[in-house]
Amino acid sequence: MSIDRRQFLKASMAAAGLAATAGSLPSDVQAAAAKPKVYFTKELSAEGLLKMYKLVSADISGRTAVKVHTGEPNGPNILPREWVQHFLANVPNTTVVECNVLYASPRQSTEGHRKTLETNGWSAFTTVDIMDEDGDANLPVRGGKWLKELAVGKHLLNYDSMIVLTHFKGHTMGGFGGSLKNISIGCASGKVGKEQLHREGSKLWSGGPNFMERMVEGGKAITDHFGKHITYVNVLRNMSVSCDCEGTAAEPVRLPNLGILASTDILAIDKASVDMIYKLPEKVRAHMVERIESRSGLRQLSYMKELGMGSDDYELVEV
Which fold has domain 35-318? Predict the structure, then answer.
């Protein structure tokens, strides 16, 4: 097909205009088009954990909450306490935070929770802030179809930033527990917020895709609250199909230890963690895949994407 000089010049000028417009876009808009980075190391150690955090720590400042699942009494798979002790010693102005639980457990009450923290070795090196000890605060859920607000531990409002330090594993109701579960269920207050997430009508312990969506909406309340001042580290170690909330009743660990992931994008890091499971040999991964899919766990990822919480198209960077 032929094109005359006038058409060529017109097309060239249009292209130049588009290029100029793109070049003049704010840097944050240009950055939004780039794939989020998910950093990965096979080094499972206190030093490896700290190294990975430092790669995603640029926007963490001020008084900083470190959200960790501290586990049921004598839970066998929770993060090594010596790793977290080393982490706190090297990251200033940090406090481990938790909330009480809804299910039958010593951690239903603050008193019982503190005894469990002592049993599990946390109290030997830090004072965990049980954020709902003094009641709740409500955070808005923007764009939610199930929730308009989430009741969180009141002390959450005392922090400027949050580091989400997650033991990635399976979950009885969620299919898997990653960074999303850690901040959504984990920051919801024990008496109110956790029931908001778990209840559907007259049924308290309601699972399936609707539960995944409520969990995502709860997580969005937390990510919106902290904005850019929140970052994520997932530790893929001692991964049972059971959550750490099952304690000594957890199913045996049958997956290999894989490593540590870090990102500033919650969807990207949880998607990368799931992808690593799915890339294992079929016989190795089958039990975890069954747990994830039988609980509609992948709806966590797709609904985070629908709510604009991050990107599932990430760049994996091994370090």
Answer: Rossmann fold (3.40.50)
Q: Is the pLDDT of residue 295 over 60?
A: yes
Confidence of residue 248 (pLDDT cuts 50, 70, 90): very high
What is the spatial distance between Cα 101 and Cα 192, in angstroms, rounded to a whole number?
Answer: 10
Side-chain half-sphere CA neighbours of 64 within 13 A: 23
What are the pLDDT digits (tens) for 29-61? 554 569 999 999 999 999 999 999 999 999 999
**Confidence band, pLDDT 50/70/90 cuts, at residue 240:** very high
Give yes or no for a contact between 175 and 243, defined as CB atoms under 8 angstroms apart. Answer: no
pLDDT tens for 78-124 read: 999 999 999 999 999 999 999 999 999 999 999 999 999 999 999 99
Other beta carbons within 10 angstroms of residue 25's beta carbon come to 12
Which residues are CB-neighbours of 154 under 8 A, at least 6 positions away? 131, 132, 134, 135, 136, 137, 189
For residue 152, give the amino acid letter. V
* Cα 266 to Cα 29, 140, 147, 177, 310, distances in angstroms: 19, 19, 20, 12, 6
Predicted TM-score (pTM) of the model is 0.90
